[in-house]
Amino acid sequence: MTKSGPSRWLKGALVSAVAAIVCYWLWASLTEWADDVANSQRDAMMTGSIESLLAGITGVVSMPALLWAGMRILQERGNHLLVILGAIAWIFVGGHVVEDPVSTAGTAVFLTLFAVLGSLLSSVEVPGR
């Protein structure tokens, strides 16, 4: 364990769970908006493409920012592993639950697994200078 004890992994699980829910909601909402744009103008070529790209970028880029900010708010430092590997894992987990047909139960399982991964990653603290 690290010097802050078991509470660090609990904080990591909480931050990862909240970040996963927020990022999922944001990405899914923006993807739905992009689909609505594409369906409203079916005859136009590439309609909704920019909106889809923005949805994906926002859904992916917001994860490391939320993980970092959440852990800093909870006064935990040395979260490099959580932020970097959590962001990489989110590309796959978030992309799957948002872009592929996944049931509500399946989505809940994937988001829970992401929170468990975040808990494990947060238990490793990068030493300070």
Structural account:
The protein is mostly helical. Helices cover 76% and strands 0% of the residues. It has 4 helices and no strands. The protein has helices at 7-40, 49-73, 80-99, 104-122. The longest helix is centred in the N-terminal third of the chain and has 34 residues, at 7-40. The protein is elongated. It starts with 6 loop residues before the first helix and ends in a 7-residue tail after the last helix.
Question: Which characteristics define this entry?
Answer:
mainly alpha; 129 residues
**H/E topology pattern:** HHHH
Strand content: under 5%
Shape: elongated
Structure classification: mainly alpha
Number of helices: 4
Largest sheet: none
Taking the alpha carbons of the first and last residues, their distance comes to 19 Å
Number of DSSP-assigned strands: 0
| Cα-atom radius of gyration | 17 Å
Low-confidence stretches: none
| Helix content range | over 70%
What value does the average pLDDT take?
Answer: 86
